[in-house]
Structures are given as C-alpha cells and as structure tokens.
TrEMBL record:
It comes from the Eukaryota. The chain crosses the membrane at residues 99-119, 126-150, 170-193, 214-237, 277-307, 327-349, 380-401. InterPro entries: Choline_transptr-like. It is a multi-pass membrane protein. This is Choline transporter-like protein. PANTHER family: CHOLINE TRANSPORTER-LIKE (SLC FAMILY 44), CHOLINE TRANSPORTER-LIKE 2. Residues 480-495 have a biased composition (Polar residues). GO terms for molecular function: transmembrane transporter activity. It comes from Ectocarpus siliculosus (Brown alga). Choline transporter. Coiled coil: none annotated. Belongs to the CTL (choline transporter-like) family. It holds the Pfam family Choline_transpo. Keywords: Glycoprotein, Membrane, Transmembrane, Transmembrane helix.
Amino acid sequence: MKADSPRDTVSIAVYTKLPSSESELSHFSRNYSVVICRYDRPDDLDNEEAVLAGYCNPQYESVEVVNYCVFTDTDIWDNVEQSDLANYLSSFIADVITARAYVFGFGFGVATLVAFVYIGLLQIPFLVAILVWSCVLLVLLCLLGLGYGLWVTAVDWDDDGTKEDYIVTAAYACAVVAWVLAFLWTCLFCFLAKRIALAIGVIKEAGRSIASMPIIVFWPVVELVASIAFVAIWMYYAAYTASLGDITTKTVESDTGGYDLSYKVYDFDQQVQYRGWFLLFCLFWTLNFITAMGQIVIAMSVASWYFARHKSHVGSLTVVSSVGKTFTFHIGTAAFGGLIVAIVETAIFSTNFCTSARNAFYLIARNIARVAAVSILGEFVLNVMTLFVCVVTTLGVYVAMDSNIRSQLNSLVGPTIMTAVLAYYTGKMVTGVYGMAITTILQCFVADEELFPPSQQFAENDLRGWVDKHGAPTEVDSGPRQQSSGTGANQFAFS
C-alpha cells in the first residue's frame, strides 16, 4: 500500500512466500521486517528502498488491545499524538452511522416491544407477585450458580496446574464472595418480605388505574416519536458541528528507514468544543422535557381516576383531557424542573411549580413513613424492569451486529453502548407509566386524608390498610394544609 496515497492502492501482497506451516505463520505474524507491498514492487529494491519509494507500507511492532493496535515502542507514542477524544468520537460516530439500523431499531423498537410485554404482564394481577419474586429468585440462583461455576473452575485449574497459584486463589475467593452475596441477598428479602408484599399491592392498585385508561399505556409511543424526531434533528446539527474541525497533517518517522509517515486528523478549536457541549446539554434537557411532559399527563390522568367517586366513568378520554390541560397550563413546569413530586402536586392541585415543590415537601414530611414504605420498593421493582429491558435489548443487538456487520465496524463497543443507552431510556420511559401511577396514587392517598374527612375519602380496597401497617403520619410544623383549587385533577371528582 502506498502510505502517502492509500487511494492509489488497488491491491496489496506480502512480498515473501506464503507460510506453509503453523510455526511459519506464527513467525510471519511477529516478523516486523516483513512488509506489505504492492504487486508492482520492483524486485531490485530492498525493504527500506521500497518503503521510501512508496511501494510498501512501513511496519510498527504492536499488540492488540480491545481490537486496536497499540505500539509496543513507547518512543513512537511520544512522536505520534495519541488518539484524543475527538478521534475516538469520530470512530464512534462512524460506527453508529454504519450500524444505525441496528442501533435505532433495537434501541427504540425492540426495547419498546420488550417493555410493553413486561408492562402488559404486570396488568395481570396474579402475575405481579410471580414476576417480582421470580426476579428475586433469579438473582439468587445467578449468584449461587456463579459461585459454583467459579469453584469448579478453580478446582480444575488447581488439579491440572495450568494456572498460576494466585489465579486459582482468586477464583476460589470470587466463588466465596458470590456465595456470601447470595446469603446476604436471601437475608435482605426475608427481612423485606412484608414490604415487598406491600409494594406488590400498590402495583396492583396502579394496574387498576391503567386498566381503566388503556390508552395511557401507549402514551410512551408519543414520547418515543417526539424523542426520535428530536434526536434525528439533533444528529444533523451534531454532524455539522463535528465537521467544523480543521484538518491538520501529522507526521511520524518510520522504523524501517527515514521515511516520514503522514496522516491527517481533525483539530477542534475552543468555540467548536463549546458548541459540542451545548448540543449535549440540549440533548439531555430536551429528552428530559419530553419525559416530564409525559409524567404530568400520566399523573393527572391517574389522579383523576383516584379522585373519581365512580371510577367506572373514568376512561381513555380522561387521558385526552389531561393532555390538553398539560399543554395549556404546565409546559413551564416540565421545562423548568424535573422533580417528580412537584409534577404530581401540579397535576393534583393545579398550582405553579414552586408552590407544588414546597407542598410536595411538606406532604411527604407529614407522611414520611407511609411514603417510604412503598415508594422505595416500588422504584426497585420498576428499576429491575428497566434493567431487564436494557440487558435483553443490548444482548440482542450485539448478537445481531456480530453475526451480520462485524467486519464493517471499527468496533462493536460503540454501537452496543449507544444501543444500551437508547434501550435504557426507552425502557425507563415505558415502565415510567407504572412508576408515575404508583407515585401518584401514594401522594393522592396521603393528600386524600388531609383534604377530606374519613367518610368522604376516595381510597378503595385495602390500600389504606396496607399503608397504615407501616406507620401513621409524622406531624411536623409544615405550614398550612393543602387546599384544592378545583382546577386540577380532582376537579374531575367534583364534576
């Protein structure tokens, strides 16, 4: 290959006889005096002359590290500027663009499908407990199996003597650690068994609200479409910004002779770097704004269901009404803050963001034991769901890319990480329907006690009894109690 003009190279050949045995092949792969040359290399030129004439590619001794060639001679690293963040970013973007169908197909489409299947199963009451305890048991079995596998492997290594003693000892130690973690995991959930049962009960009640408004399950699709539209526009500006760098030429002296190898890199000035950081900020803020808008819609819909005397009258039209109220009154709340409790307070009482944040703090302070008993475990269950979606999707995209387009990528790491991020975001968005329902019902219940006398409260079934088992409200000096404005979610209850 002509080093200073790769595009002029049509084909290459190794200027030596082909290796005929495994030992010759091993020697060939480590013989850095063997150079790769064009077919038209003159026979009268030695390696150094051929490199200087541009017929052969200069060679550098290197080792493979995570699918990249790393120079073994540190002096070369002193001469060659190591790949900086911009160069890694360029490779990352190139791989993502090449694998875009897999990244976005799995990151959004497959992740959404997996999340919908999981959340659909949670709407079946008797399966909630099975799913929750199955996750707990699965983690326990994985820890036990990991410990057993490590122990058996350590025994085999110890018997055949193929590994160093410290490696065998480390394997034994890891096996013991896995078993200790399995024991602690068992103790933890034996201690939390009743609280997990309480969280399961709240999830069932949240499932009732979602079952009454089935269209709410598809609200994340609206968020998904909005997110895809924004990311598509954002990538256009990101690609434009990435192209603003100045192309500079770097040179390095070859080990095979006085030939200087030239290559080109992108250098970005301070202004372009600031643009990149600003685009990253816009990405995070806008995606969270889209999520917050969805949270308000879900919270307002679930609050309307809770504060309805006749819950059979609540349906999908309630979600449509909540969308209208959100876009009319609460866009600023979603844009200004992402505090979930403040969003729920806004949905229930129709107050502004600052007032809602203050009221939410005092509401939780007055009912700290009740809220803590369910919200933490509820979030744990939902985080397990989100992690499940992320892991399944990431594993799927890795297998798919490894089977189909591995040779087209610099590395599978970049597209896989990008898919994992998108899958996590998608899973969090979809499973957030249940999370917001749980959070809203909890706050609706404790607000219900303050707004109405016992005979007029809206709590149904065993919800009040489940929460009361974990403590009465803790009274604090929290200022005036909350009052309904009649324009929030509970307006539905009074109509």
